[in-house]
Amino acid sequence: MAAPLLLCALTHAWVASCPTGSSARLAGHCQYARGGVTGLLPPQIRAHRRAVEMTVALAEEDTGKPAEARLPYVLTGLPRSTYRGTAMGWLHKTRLWYLVAVLYVVIAAILGRTAAVPLSNVQLGFRVLAAMATAANVFISDRYHNADRRLHAGRAQAYSAAAETSALAFDYLGISSVLTTQLWLWSANMNWMLMLKQVGVLSGLSTALVAVLARFVVPKKMGHVMVKATMATQFTVFLGYLAWCVLSAAPTACRVGVLIFFIYAPGLFVYALKWPKHPVFGFHEWFHLSVLLGHTSSMVFDLRNIVVPCIHFCAGVN
User: Fold this and answer.
1) How far is CA 304 from CA 28, 108, 178, 307, in A?
2) d(CA 179, CA 209)
3) Using one digit for the tens of pLDDT, what is the confidence trace for 198-253?
């Protein structure tokens, strides 16, 4: 018991508890007091990094396998699974997703010029906003979920309560922006039928509300609850209404677009349930996978819709 406690003490944070099992050390599940990591100075950070390296060495000795110690989130002390943020980090590091987003807009602009129903500047603008929201989603998720890896790389300020609070606030705003821009894009594709204009306004106001809550109330518990309730409304009520409109009132050819809703849905479902909890690949990793598949499918289906706009198969749908 003494060795793990000594390793945690080297961080100069008050240790609430530190399990001794190899799996616990591997995951870095030492519980820090509130603000315990925030005030770390460079010499203390160096000691902390040495402690992490020693912890990894102990885990590798116990398991006989290479190990990466993921440190918990600063604000909550909750553990990071091994692959937490790995996909978003890779997409950011390689710049691959940013390239995908730019190509999507460029291809949409080219197709929109020669399409049977050319895209207006406003319609192209919806695609620019949607692409920017997905790019921001990747960028911010990497910043939030990989702060511990930046600490290991020598960027001490990345792993602090202040940095984590800021990243979390932007993460909330990024997710809400994705929900709103996807709603706007596909509502425009459906020619703003029924009450989609009003719902689009409500979703935009919801994103503005998330921005205010994330800035001034998060990380208080009430802030988290209100933000998540707002985003849940955006998905289940607003995007759910869009899906209902497509299924009930749009031409049959448009219904393939509803698949996008059901590609995003499983990730949000497991995120809400906080299940499955796994130290290697848990619910948040499934959430990110679902989100990335949703982004991709939306781009693909939208490009298809530019070439063959389904809504025009049914004259007079408004």
Assistant:
1) 46, 10, 20, 5
2) 13
3) 999 999 999 999 999 999 999 999 999 999 999 999 999 999 999 999 999 999 89
161 and 36 Cβ atoms separated by less than 8 Å: no
In sequence order, the 6+-apart residues with CB closer than 8 A to the CB of 227 are 172, 176, 210, 213, 214, 217, 218
Rg (CA), the chain: 22
* First-to-last C-alpha distance (Å) of the chain: 69
- The Cα 207–Cα 203 span in angstroms is 6
Which percentage of the chain shows pLDDT scores above 90? 73
How far is residue 49's CA from residue 187's CA, in Å, rounded to a whole number? 50
- Rounded distance, CA 290 to CA 258, Å? 15
The pairs formed by 76-80 with CB atoms below 8 angstroms and a separation of 24 or more are 77/16, 77/31, 77/32, 79/27, 79/28, 79/29, 79/279, 80/27, 80/28, 80/145, 80/148
Token output for 222: 């009430």
Are 213 and 226 in contact, with CB atoms under 8 Å apart?
A: yes
Q: What is the pLDDT of residue 147?
A: 97
Helical spans, DSSP H, in the chain? 2-9, 22-27, 42-63, 86-94, 96-114, 121-145, 147-152, 161-189, 196-216, 221-233, 240-249, 258-273, 283-307
